[in-house]
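Lab notebook, entry 206. We have the chain sequence and a SMILES string for glutathione, and the next step in the workflow is to get a structural model of the bound complex before anyone spends time on docking refinements. Request logged below.

Task: model protein plus glutathione, output structure tokens.
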Amino acid sequence: MKIYWFKAQAPRRVVALAKHLGIEAKFVWLDVAKGGLQAPDYKTLNPNMKAPTLVDGELVLWESSAIMAHLCIKAGSEMWPASKPAEQVELLRWLSWNEGHWSPVVGQFYFEYVIKPKFKMGPPNLDKLEAKRPELEKFAGVLNTHLAGRHHIAFDRLTIADFSLASMACHWREADMRLEQFSNIVAWLDSLDKLPAWAEPWPADA
Ligand SMILES: N[C@@H](CCC(=O)N[C@@H](CS)C(=O)NCC(=O)O)C(=O)O
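Result returned:
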């Protein structure tokens, strides 16, 4: 099995999960600065020219949620509840909410404060972020309320939804997301940081 990655939030979900589950894979680092995402061989695997991508025998899979589900099925992990349809529905709710609402707004802050400095793209656009702040607070409120009395996104156990929803929000301090007022979110993110595979997800290949 091969997992293509570079140091960014969507690949982090997958490499952290593979490490957490103890999955044997060849981790193929993509040299983004040298056009690794646009290389013809990679583009054949992932026409989106994004990471992560998984190759497992004949299977070529992109989209981190699908890859994470595949890894869980292979490892027999309930982090994706392969044999529990009702639980799948609940996880799909949160994965969809993440793609549709949480990631798009949290991602603005992540991009301005984490990605731009990394690729020397200039200072953060503060006006843009201030305009996004009400939306961030609205969705943070939804998540914070949901997390009241919970340690995880679903079923009081770690699932792929935790890794998906946390992959950009975990940068909240450096990215000026001002989540202090959402104490359940902060407690959840801080507890995820105690997982070795989440705290130190990156393969050694780079
Ligand atoms: N929805 C996709 C997102 C993939 C994605 O956007 N990956 C980013 C890194 S976080 C990427 O490869 N960006 C490179 C680019 O857009 O040039 C997933 O969950 O896998």
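Notes for the group: The longest strand covers residues 2-5. Worth checking against the assay data. The helical segments are 9-21, 40-45, 64-75, 85-118, 126-147, 160-169, 183-192, 196-199.
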